[in-house]
Amino acid sequence: MTEVKVPTPPQATEADGDDYRLEQQIGFLLRRAHQYASDVFQARMGARNLTPQQFSVLVTLLKNRELAQTKLGEIAAMDPATVLGVVQRLAQRGLVAVRTDPADGRRRLVQLTRDGHEMAGELVAIGPVISRETLAGLSPEDQRDLLRLLDSLGQKG
Fold it and tell me: Rounded to two decimals, what is the model's pTM?
């Protein structure tokens, strides 16, 4: 019978986590805040059955009429694969229409349908309510600071 030698684990060091606090890490805190904001968003969306990304696309199109899908993704802060999926799902629901750009057959142009325009109009009214509810536990000064800091952090990417 062959003896199996189990390696001895290295000795614990400070780098092994004695001083590490997950609850103090930016990624953990952002994820937790995102989960809270998502819960508030979903509670307000009700039967509309929209994701935050779909919300962003509809509101962006309301303000821009018709956009190339790539430009739509840039404005709504989505990578090309994500915006493609979002647009496809909204098109299946009859909320957006997609056509090929006559000037460039490689580009897809996206615009709201009548139903999409109606829903986007409702969303513009709901958006500030969602923001107020999400930030309600913070003082007005802390709300401004948080939004400013998040915007600054987001500009880095």
Answer: 0.80
Q: Which CATH architecture has domain 25-155?
A: Orthogonal Bundle (1.10)
**In what helix (H) or strand (E) does residue 11 lie, and over which residues does it extend?**
none
Q: How far apart are CA 109 and CA 66, in angstroms?
A: 6
Q: What is the pLDDT along the chain (157 residues), one digit of tens a residue?
A: 566 676 666 665 556 667 899 888 999 999 999 999 999 999 998 889 999 999 999 999 999 999 999 999 999 999 999 999 999 999 999 999 999 999 999 999 999 999 999 999 999 999 999 999 999 999 999 999 999 999 998 887 6
